[in-house]
Structures are given as C-alpha cells and as structure tokens.
Amino acid sequence: MTRTELRGIPQPDQSFASFMGLPAVYLRGAKKSFGEKEVLRDVSLLINKGEVVSIIGPSGAGKSTLLRCLTLLDRFDAGELAYGNVSVAKQEAAHALYDDAAMQLARMRFGIVFQNFNLFPHYTVMQNLTDAPMVVQGRQREEVEVQARELMERLGLSEHADKVPCELSGGQQQRVAIARALCMRPQIIYFDEATSALDPRLTADMHALIRELAADGMAVGIVTHEMGFAREVSDRVLFLFDGQIVEEGSPDQVMESPKDARTRDFLSRTLD
Amino acid sequence: MSSLLLQGYATSLQIFAITLVGAIPLGVPIALGRLSRIRPLSLLCQLFISIMRGTPLMLQMFAVFFVPYYMFGVQTGPGYMFVAVMLAFVVNYAAYFAEIYRSGIQSMPQGQYEAAEVLGYSKGQTFLRIILPQVVKRILPSMGNEVVTLVKDTSLAFSIGLAEMFTSARALVASQRTMVPFVLAAVIYWITCLLIELVMRRVEKRMGYYHD
Fold first, then answer.
1. Which of A53, A247, B79, B121 would staple B116 via disulfide (CB 3.0–4.6 Å)?
2. Are B114 and A120 a contacting pair at CB < 8 A?
3. Residue of B nearest to A164 (CA)
4. ipTM of the shown complex
5. For the segment B135-155, what is each residue's pLDDT rounded down to a tens digit?
C-alpha cells in the first residue's frame, strides 16, 4: 500500500480484507531517547486480534513511554509502527518517519483506558461515549446512541447514562472510559494499569470483561506492574527491563521459569 | 434631577455593554497568542498585556482621543469622544480578560488534551468542545470580579468629558448645592453591581452540575 492511498478514507471492505491476518499492532525496532537518556532500546512487539498481552516491568523500565508512543501521544525516534494495514511510521535512515494522515487513521483503530480515565467532566456519560464518534468519525447520532446504549448495557452503566462522571464511583468511571474507547470501534484497546483503582471484586469483573473483549476478537494491550492480574488475564506477557524486552512468553513460563536473570530478580522481589 | 442622572446612567450602561461585547471575545485571541508556541507572537501579546495593565486606563483613553490629531493631524468630530472611550475600554479590558483566560486554560489538566488527541479530535475541536467549556466554569468567579470593576470604571469617562452618570451627578451637585445626586449615583452603581452578582451566582450555579 502506498502512502498516497492512506490519505483517503479506505473502502471499508478493502480495508477489512487487507486487515485480516495482520496483527492489530505491529512494532519493530523502536527506540526512544530523552536527551542523553535512552528510554527504549530496540523494542519489538505485536498483538494479534483476540489476544491479551501484558507488558510488565519495574518502574522506570520504559512502560509508560512505550504506551505513550504506541498511542501516538509521543513519537518513537526510530522504528516501524503499524495498526493493521495502516503504516503509521516507517524506518528511514535510522529514523522513524511518521505519516500524519496515517496517524489519524490509526487513532480510529486503537483506544486507551487511561490510568486516571481522563473522562470529560462536563459531559454526561452518554456524551462522553457519543461525542467523538459523531464529531471525529462523522457518524449519525441515532446510530452512535444505539451503540452507546448497547455498550452501557453490557458494562452495567445503563442507569447512569445521564449522569456526569463526578457522580460515579471509580470503578464506574473506568467502565465509562472503556465504553468511550469501544464506541470508536477500535481493533485494539490499551489499558494503562487496568486494576490499580479497583478492589478485588471489581478486579475480578475487569478480568472477565477483558477476556470477553478478547473472545469477541479485540486485541488487548495492558501495561501494568501488577503481576497477579497480568498472569491471570494474559495470553502472553512481555517483560520490559531498562528499555528492552528481555522476556516474552506465556504468563506461566515468564513468571515461573524466567530465562533472564533480570526477570528472575524482579519477580523474586515482587511475587512474595 | 433624576432624568439627568438616568440619562447619564444610560451612557454608563452603554459603555459597560459595549466593553463586554467587545472585550470578552477579543481576549480569546490575545490569550491564545500569549500561549502560542510561536515565540514572537507570544512575546508581543505579553508586551501588550503588560502595557495595558501597567498604565492607567484614563491615560489610555486620552492617548486614543488625541492620537488622530497629534499623530496624523486629523481633526476629529464631537462623536469621536465616545469612540475613543470605547476603544480604550475594549482594548484595556481585553488584556485583563486575556490574562484570566490564560490562567484558566493553563489550569486544565494535560489528561484532557491527551484523551481528546487519542480520540482523534483536531486541535480546534479539542479547544472548542473539551477545553473551552471547562475553562468557562473555572474562570467565572474572576470574570465576575472584573465585570463588577467595569461598572465602576465607566465613571472614568467623566475625565474626558463624556456625559456618563458620574458626570451628571457632579454637575447636579455643583448646580443644586446638595449631596443627594452623589448618594443617588452611588445607590444606582451599587444596585447595578448587586444585579451582576446575582446573575453571576445563577450562572455559577448552572455550571455547578459537575465538578472535576
């Protein structure tokens, strides 16, 4: 696919056909520095449709930077990034070359649930869900509201449709944030610390919800330092240490028999 | 006596209304320019705000009034007096409003911008739909303060010879040898401010349907 083709809105059927089989997100050789400090050194990852992948690691390992760059709030210095068939950044002469039009297309393909949700406080729950689909995607109010009501029903928010976020509990606010992301019909949804705001019962609910999303074919990326949750919910775990992915595999493999000494060291400190 | 005062009051209200209608919108581009990443533009707006706030409104009024004659040799008609007052008031108050807008915009948490960016909102959409409505709520108390000040500042137009309420009151005090016109003028100023306080309280209450 050439760059000029990306500038227009893709034909839905073509886009869908070419998307089949491609990972929801594909990242290769990503690097990022802040001044002298190398925060990410050669990070590669991919998350497939229907797959739950957790990125774990100690504070300062580069998890937040990785997530910020994946969600296009910041840019990698080098590397290749693609969402499905949308090539967001290409590697050219040791630099990541971003395509603005592709970035906007990619934003329609991923959603993120921020750690502190960042809901729009002046909007009702319904408006939080429907505003971006109408304004950004140009969809009809009736159609978006039908979808929003379905999502609210599914997430147990139906009776809160006309409330504003400050009237809701933390767990409810998080579900609004999830619904807001899903209302954009993304193919991948990221969670920044999915469970840090939740009590044990809500954590169990979140586990069930994430597995449900994956069963529907959604790709899920979770950035967390909560090992227990990552282990239970993930299909695959990436261990990020000092800007590099030093371990990758099934949760059991990574957490029970890590190959890398740094992973062993980190896990022995956190798991007991 | 009261008819002369009320005539003056009408002029005061005119100054008040035109200043608000002009300065409230004009403050927006000044605040945005002040916050702009384009350094010269930001510095220019800072300088403008600094001068407007750092020199007396009365002096600004006279400057605007005399500029056509002393700088361009243009004789101005009697109608220009009101125009000069309005120009000075609008520009001066726009600078104050711009500073209030700026502090309001800067108080917005970064997360709101990030949430909007990830959802694909353009810069303009983010400002108009997400940032501005929340900024309005945040700056209401400071705006109320400034609007009340404006009611009383309209009396500055007296110095240039415009017949607003204080001008009438002073003329009446001199010709009729009584303090009553001053008392009446004070009461009218006060009631006007009281009404504004009431309106502001209602607006704040209406915006109080959420907190962040």
1. B121
2. no
3. B210
4. 0.88
5. 999 999 999 999 999 999 999
